[in-house]
Amino acid sequence: MATIVVSAYDVVSFPEGGGHFWVYMQYVQGLRRLGCDVYWLEQVRRRKDPDRDARALATFLERMERFGLGKRVLLYTLDEGDGAPIEYIGVSRAVAEAVLRRADLVLNFHYAIDPRLLACARRTALVDIDPGLTQIWMSTGQLRVPAHDVYFTIGEAVGAPAARLPDGGVQWVHIQPPVFLELWPYVHDPRCEAFTTVAGWWSGKWVKLIENGDEICYDNNKRVAFLEYATLPEMTAQPLELALLLANGDVADRSLLERHGWRIRDARQVASTPEQYRAYIQGSRGEWSCAKPFFVKLQNAWVSDRTGCYLASGKPAVVQHTGPSAYLPNGEGLFRFTTLDEAAAALDAINADYQRHCRAARDIAAAYFDAKLVLARVLCETLP
Predict the structure, then answer these.
(1) pTM assigned to the model
(2) Counting beta carbons within 10 angstroms of the beta carbon of residue 242, is it exposed (0 to 12), middle (13 to 18) or buried (19 or more)?
(3) What confidence tens digit (pLDDT) does each residue in 26-57 have?
């Protein structure tokens, strides 16, 4: 039995992020299903509110118990500065380091992880879930990524000869974002009304690039992408709903969307726990969503783990086109749009034969996103 340590990023401090939790748990459950002994490793970031930190930690640990990882969690704190001591939470240093020493693989999502945490493991692999951006940050020195044995990316265009993005100086292995199908069953209910998505309104941050000798900042937030499609509800009879992480100052944006016919929900109310997130997706008619602007600009062929969850649940997806794909179908179960007209036409096409597109959605997930298949390849690429 291989021992795998999954190094997650910023889950403990984001208890309201039910979808963010699932990103890493899909890998964990897929590896466990393949017979691996899996541990969760994460740096806990201290905030300004100790009480909030304590509540967030308690919430996280309770979730780990529910998902079968109660005694397989390695949490640590690390102050800024090279050489700062690594302090473990709830487990002794000796126990934590013993797990890391016997680990056959550290599967790492924390790009700037302290290299001391990788040093003991027999093999290490980075998983890039921000394709294009990760490589830009690496190439420009904005991100210092420790050396790994293998580099995975969910961006199909990363490393391709004609790619619009750098490769960061390493060789990338492409994988699909996995979905653990046993926890995401097919749910067909034609009474489900709205096409939905779950998103952070300000998710994406700014991207700095040097172009013609000048430093240029691009707004890469989801807000920019969604506002370009603000008038979509006026072009279709299909109800459309967004579950968003809005800030207090986003009243004008919300009013604008609602004037155009969008239903707006608070993601903290409908998708803050892993179970709520799953229930919200499985209670939807399908998904409609945009990508971060830079994913479209770079044409990185990215597809969201969230979309994989919709597809696995038998929910057809209409999502923004992020570049040519060698495997993603387009036109049955999954539609990839580049214009308002294409998005509206896709919704109408799905509703014209809804059950067929629901079955096709599940088939796509089983063929390409099944965590057992994706993680079997990860193990094949990393372990001798």
Answers:
(1) 0.96
(2) buried
(3) 999 999 999 999 999 999 988 878 899 999 99
